[in-house]
Amino acid sequence: MNLAQLTGQLTATGLDGLAFPSYLLGSFRRKSITFSNGLTDETTVVYWFQSRSFSIDLRLSDGAQTPVSTRQGWIGDTLWDDREELLSWHIVQSYQPHNQWPEPAKLYPVGNSVLEFAPSGAYVEDWRQQSASGPLIGLRLKAVRNERTGALLPMDGGLIVAGAHTAYAQSRLPDVEQRLRGASGLEAAVAHGLASTAEVESYEVSLALDGAIIRHSTCSARYGETLHLDDYDLLSDGTIIQSGALAGEPCTFLYTLDVFVREFAFTCRSHCGPAAEQWLHEERTHLMHNAALVR
Could you tell me the pTM of the whole model? Predict the structure, then answer.
């Protein structure tokens, strides 16, 4: 069955007990990052998808032309410090061999924007919510079974659907990840024979925006392809499986359900008090003259 048919068999999870503010759920495009040295980047392709307990992130400095060795993408467990109101991520495996963004995030919602401040003062990022309404689905990949050998491969990955937008992440094969662990960088790893370029690129983070066609990816060959959102089945214990292939081998992908809300209203507005609302209304001729929705 396809994903739409699968959701017809799933029981909604709801969002009771969500660890962090609900305005962080969804799909976000980074509009800009401003550094403490005064420089601002408004060009790098950066997206962040947030499910109930995990995040998927993609960063491409030159879009599809980004060199294989400098692409960034990961999936990580989302951690929320309620006392300090800080968001952080536990990343076991990522495209790069080390965590390039170790600081937690201090986050403030303003309209359809979430402003992320590094506690150190190193930067501030302006994230724009891309989703308006629709399903919120999170499937977390736990393992892949090779159907030819029967081997169960521990792999990380997942799928997040936020309205019309979808993100998919899948780690490299365990033996490739092991060879790359501790490498000083991916270019050096290839140069020293730790992995081939194809093996480096096999860590996939792919995004389909407004449909199922992949618009951005860590994998060059995936551009313009359709995300594989078919061949699912739901087992009696709640495990979601999907038939597919990995490195040319027939495989079954095993997922757990992280979240499923059939129709979710993603946060695109923030609260302000009555006095501020009155000011906005009274001064709208000037304030809203050139204002437009920016995503």
Answer: 0.96
